[in-house]
Automatic annotation (TrEMBL):
Keywords: Oxidoreductase. This is SDR family oxidoreductase. It comes from Paenibacillus albiflavus. One of its GO terms (molecular function) is oxidoreductase activity. Belongs to the short-chain dehydrogenases/reductases (SDR) family. GO terms for biological process: monocarboxylic acid metabolic process. PROSITE patterns: ADH_SHORT. InterPro entries: NAD(P)-bd_dom_sf, Sc_DH/Rdtase_CS, SDR, SDR_fam.
Length: 248
Protein backbone atom coordinates (compact mmCIF):
# COMPACT_ATOMS: atom_id res chain seq x y z
CA UNK A 1 0.00 0.00 0.00
CA UNK A 2 0.99 3.60 -0.54
CA UNK A 3 2.31 5.44 2.55
CA UNK A 4 -0.41 6.55 4.94
CA UNK A 5 0.13 10.25 4.31
CA UNK A 6 -0.28 9.68 0.57
CA UNK A 7 -3.68 8.05 0.91
CA UNK A 8 -7.01 9.76 0.27
CA UNK A 9 -9.76 10.28 2.83
CA UNK A 10 -13.36 11.25 2.03
CA UNK A 11 -15.34 12.82 4.86
CA UNK A 12 -19.06 13.29 4.32
CA UNK A 13 -20.68 16.29 5.98
CA UNK A 14 -17.31 17.96 6.47
CA UNK A 15 -18.24 21.64 6.23
CA UNK A 16 -18.56 22.05 10.01
CA UNK A 17 -18.37 20.39 13.41
CA UNK A 18 -16.95 16.89 13.74
CA UNK A 19 -16.55 16.49 9.98
CA UNK A 20 -14.45 19.65 9.67
CA UNK A 21 -12.29 18.58 12.63
CA UNK A 22 -11.70 15.20 10.98
CA UNK A 23 -10.69 16.89 7.73
CA UNK A 24 -8.17 19.08 9.57
CA UNK A 25 -6.72 16.09 11.43
CA UNK A 26 -5.97 14.15 8.27
CA UNK A 27 -4.79 17.24 6.38
CA UNK A 28 -2.28 17.94 9.15
CA UNK A 29 -0.16 15.00 7.93
CA UNK A 30 -0.44 16.01 4.28
CA UNK A 31 -3.03 13.41 3.31
CA UNK A 32 -5.29 13.94 0.28
CA UNK A 33 -8.62 15.17 1.66
CA UNK A 34 -12.05 15.21 0.04
CA UNK A 35 -14.56 17.44 1.80
CA UNK A 36 -18.17 16.57 1.06
CA UNK A 37 -21.02 18.97 1.68
CA UNK A 38 -24.62 19.44 0.57
CA UNK A 39 -25.43 23.16 0.61
CA UNK A 40 -22.79 24.85 2.79
CA UNK A 41 -20.54 25.83 -0.11
CA UNK A 42 -18.73 28.70 1.62
CA UNK A 43 -18.19 26.79 4.85
CA UNK A 44 -16.79 23.83 2.89
CA UNK A 45 -14.42 26.16 1.05
CA UNK A 46 -13.25 27.64 4.34
CA UNK A 47 -12.44 24.16 5.64
CA UNK A 48 -10.67 23.37 2.36
CA UNK A 49 -8.54 26.51 2.51
CA UNK A 50 -7.46 25.80 6.06
CA UNK A 51 -6.60 22.20 5.13
CA UNK A 52 -4.52 23.38 2.18
CA UNK A 53 -2.28 25.31 4.56
CA UNK A 54 -0.78 21.95 5.57
CA UNK A 55 0.21 21.27 1.98
CA UNK A 56 -2.55 18.73 1.44
CA UNK A 57 -4.26 18.12 -1.87
CA UNK A 58 -7.88 19.06 -1.12
CA UNK A 59 -11.12 18.73 -3.07
CA UNK A 60 -14.66 19.77 -2.22
CA UNK A 61 -17.60 17.83 -3.62
CA UNK A 62 -21.32 18.36 -3.27
CA UNK A 63 -23.90 15.60 -3.38
CA UNK A 64 -27.24 14.73 -1.86
CA UNK A 65 -26.31 11.46 -0.18
CA UNK A 66 -29.92 10.33 -0.29
CA UNK A 67 -29.51 9.95 -4.06
CA UNK A 68 -27.59 7.04 -5.56
CA UNK A 69 -27.30 8.99 -8.83
CA UNK A 70 -25.56 11.89 -7.09
CA UNK A 71 -23.23 9.55 -5.22
CA UNK A 72 -22.37 7.87 -8.53
CA UNK A 73 -21.53 11.30 -10.01
CA UNK A 74 -19.38 12.07 -6.97
CA UNK A 75 -17.58 8.75 -7.53
CA UNK A 76 -16.93 9.60 -11.18
CA UNK A 77 -15.54 13.01 -10.28
CA UNK A 78 -13.18 11.60 -7.65
CA UNK A 79 -12.07 8.84 -10.00
CA UNK A 80 -11.28 11.37 -12.74
CA UNK A 81 -9.02 13.27 -10.33
CA UNK A 82 -7.35 10.15 -8.94
CA UNK A 83 -8.96 10.79 -5.56
CA UNK A 84 -10.94 7.61 -4.86
CA UNK A 85 -10.85 7.20 -1.08
CA UNK A 86 -8.77 4.65 0.74
CA UNK A 87 -10.55 5.85 3.89
CA UNK A 88 -14.27 6.65 3.98
CA UNK A 89 -15.68 8.57 6.94
CA UNK A 90 -19.49 8.39 6.95
CA UNK A 91 -20.07 11.46 9.11
CA UNK A 92 -23.03 13.30 7.53
CA UNK A 93 -26.13 13.17 9.69
CA UNK A 94 -29.08 15.06 11.16
CA UNK A 95 -30.77 14.95 14.55
CA UNK A 96 -34.44 14.98 15.48
CA UNK A 97 -35.81 15.92 18.88
CA UNK A 98 -39.42 15.36 19.90
CA UNK A 99 -41.97 12.88 21.16
CA UNK A 100 -42.52 9.82 18.99
CA UNK A 101 -46.24 10.59 18.95
CA UNK A 102 -45.41 13.83 17.08
CA UNK A 103 -43.08 12.25 14.51
CA UNK A 104 -44.40 12.35 10.96
CA UNK A 105 -43.71 9.78 8.29
CA UNK A 106 -41.67 12.46 6.50
CA UNK A 107 -39.56 13.01 9.65
CA UNK A 108 -38.89 9.28 9.88
CA UNK A 109 -37.96 8.93 6.22
CA UNK A 110 -35.61 11.93 6.27
CA UNK A 111 -33.73 10.87 9.41
CA UNK A 112 -33.38 7.28 8.19
CA UNK A 113 -32.37 8.34 4.71
CA UNK A 114 -29.59 10.71 5.77
CA UNK A 115 -28.33 8.84 8.84
CA UNK A 116 -28.65 5.25 7.64
CA UNK A 117 -29.28 4.98 3.91
CA UNK A 118 -26.50 7.43 2.98
CA UNK A 119 -23.70 5.44 4.71
CA UNK A 120 -24.99 2.31 2.95
CA UNK A 121 -24.93 4.00 -0.46
CA UNK A 122 -21.51 5.58 0.09
CA UNK A 123 -19.97 2.37 1.39
CA UNK A 124 -21.42 0.42 -1.52
CA UNK A 125 -20.06 2.93 -4.03
CA UNK A 126 -16.48 3.05 -2.76
CA UNK A 127 -16.05 -0.55 -1.60
CA UNK A 128 -14.93 -1.98 -4.96
CA UNK A 129 -11.86 0.30 -4.96
CA UNK A 130 -10.89 -0.78 -1.44
CA UNK A 131 -11.49 -4.47 -2.14
CA UNK A 132 -9.47 -4.33 -5.35
CA UNK A 133 -6.42 -3.03 -3.48
CA UNK A 134 -7.01 -5.34 -0.49
CA UNK A 135 -6.94 -2.36 1.86
CA UNK A 136 -9.34 0.23 3.17
CA UNK A 137 -11.01 1.85 6.13
CA UNK A 138 -14.68 2.65 6.67
CA UNK A 139 -15.43 4.63 9.82
CA UNK A 140 -19.03 5.48 10.64
CA UNK A 141 -19.87 8.34 12.98
CA UNK A 142 -22.66 7.03 15.20
CA UNK A 143 -23.88 8.26 18.60
CA UNK A 144 -24.09 7.23 22.22
CA UNK A 145 -27.86 7.10 21.66
CA UNK A 146 -27.41 4.34 19.11
CA UNK A 147 -26.14 2.26 22.04
CA UNK A 148 -28.31 3.43 24.94
CA UNK A 149 -31.31 5.07 23.28
CA UNK A 150 -32.65 8.49 24.25
CA UNK A 151 -36.10 9.68 25.23
CA UNK A 152 -37.46 12.20 22.71
CA UNK A 153 -34.80 11.09 20.21
CA UNK A 154 -36.34 7.79 19.24
CA UNK A 155 -35.91 7.96 15.48
CA UNK A 156 -32.38 9.37 15.77
CA UNK A 157 -31.49 6.59 18.23
CA UNK A 158 -33.01 4.02 15.90
CA UNK A 159 -31.00 5.25 12.91
CA UNK A 160 -27.74 5.27 14.87
CA UNK A 161 -28.51 1.82 16.29
CA UNK A 162 -28.88 0.71 12.68
CA UNK A 163 -25.47 2.19 11.86
CA UNK A 164 -23.96 0.17 14.71
CA UNK A 165 -25.47 -3.06 13.39
CA UNK A 166 -24.41 -2.13 9.85
CA UNK A 167 -20.86 -1.60 11.12
CA UNK A 168 -20.65 -4.97 12.86
CA UNK A 169 -22.08 -6.93 9.96
CA UNK A 170 -20.08 -5.21 7.23
CA UNK A 171 -16.87 -5.65 9.24
CA UNK A 172 -17.33 -9.42 9.13
CA UNK A 173 -18.09 -9.34 5.41
CA UNK A 174 -15.02 -7.27 4.52
CA UNK A 175 -12.42 -8.65 6.94
CA UNK A 176 -11.05 -11.16 4.37
CA UNK A 177 -10.51 -8.25 1.96
CA UNK A 178 -8.30 -6.24 4.32
CA UNK A 179 -10.94 -3.56 4.86
CA UNK A 180 -11.84 -2.62 8.43
CA UNK A 181 -15.18 -1.15 9.47
CA UNK A 182 -15.67 0.60 12.80
CA UNK A 183 -17.98 3.17 14.34
CA UNK A 184 -17.27 6.08 16.65
CA UNK A 185 -20.29 6.79 18.87
CA UNK A 186 -19.69 10.10 20.67
CA UNK A 187 -21.56 11.37 23.67
CA UNK A 188 -22.37 15.08 23.85
CA UNK A 189 -20.08 17.09 21.57
CA UNK A 190 -19.82 20.87 21.45
CA UNK A 191 -21.25 21.37 17.94
CA UNK A 192 -24.23 23.05 16.30
CA UNK A 193 -26.28 19.91 16.99
CA UNK A 194 -26.36 20.90 20.67
CA UNK A 195 -28.07 24.20 19.85
CA UNK A 196 -31.47 22.53 20.22
CA UNK A 197 -30.88 22.75 23.99
CA UNK A 198 -30.98 25.96 26.03
CA UNK A 199 -28.27 26.93 28.52
CA UNK A 200 -30.04 25.29 31.47
CA UNK A 201 -30.52 22.02 29.59
CA UNK A 202 -26.88 22.02 28.51
CA UNK A 203 -25.81 22.57 32.10
CA UNK A 204 -27.96 19.62 33.23
CA UNK A 205 -26.35 17.40 30.58
CA UNK A 206 -22.83 18.45 31.63
CA UNK A 207 -23.68 17.67 35.24
CA UNK A 208 -24.65 14.13 34.18
CA UNK A 209 -21.30 13.55 32.48
CA UNK A 210 -18.60 12.37 34.92
CA UNK A 211 -15.98 14.51 33.18
CA UNK A 212 -18.30 17.50 33.60
CA UNK A 213 -18.10 18.84 30.05
CA UNK A 214 -18.94 18.21 26.42
CA UNK A 215 -16.37 16.68 24.10
CA UNK A 216 -14.63 18.93 21.60
CA UNK A 217 -14.78 17.96 17.90
CA UNK A 218 -10.99 17.57 17.81
CA UNK A 219 -11.21 14.82 20.44
CA UNK A 220 -13.59 12.82 18.26
CA UNK A 221 -11.40 13.45 15.22
CA UNK A 222 -8.38 12.00 17.04
CA UNK A 223 -10.19 8.70 17.61
CA UNK A 224 -11.31 8.56 13.98
CA UNK A 225 -7.71 9.19 12.92
CA UNK A 226 -6.45 6.38 15.17
CA UNK A 227 -8.90 3.89 13.66
CA UNK A 228 -7.71 4.84 10.17
CA UNK A 229 -4.05 4.12 10.88
CA UNK A 230 -2.41 1.07 9.27
CA UNK A 231 -1.43 0.01 12.80
CA UNK A 232 -5.15 -0.32 13.63
CA UNK A 233 -5.63 -3.12 11.12
CA UNK A 234 -6.75 -5.66 13.76
CA UNK A 235 -9.54 -3.42 15.05
CA UNK A 236 -12.78 -4.02 13.17
CA UNK A 237 -16.48 -4.33 13.93
CA UNK A 238 -16.14 -2.15 17.01
CA UNK A 239 -18.44 0.57 18.31
CA UNK A 240 -16.24 2.88 20.35
CA UNK A 241 -17.96 5.56 22.42
CA UNK A 242 -15.93 8.56 23.61
CA UNK A 243 -18.44 9.97 26.08
CA UNK A 244 -16.55 11.21 29.16
CA UNK A 245 -17.81 8.32 31.28
CA UNK A 246 -21.47 9.14 30.59
CA UNK A 247 -22.10 5.55 29.46
CA UNK A 248 -19.90 2.73 30.70
Amino acid sequence: MKPFNEQTVLITGASRGIGAAIAHRFASIGMNVVIHYLQSHELANEVARSCMQYGSKVMTVTADLQSKDQIDKMYEKLQSYGMLPDILINNAGISHYGLLSDVTEEDWDRVMSINLKAPFLCSQAFLPHMISQKYGRIINVSSIWGIAGASCEVIYSTAKGGINAFTKALAKELAPSGVTVNAVAPGAVDTEMMQMFDASEKNDIENDIPMGRFAMPDEIASLVYFLALPESSYITGQIISPNGGWLT
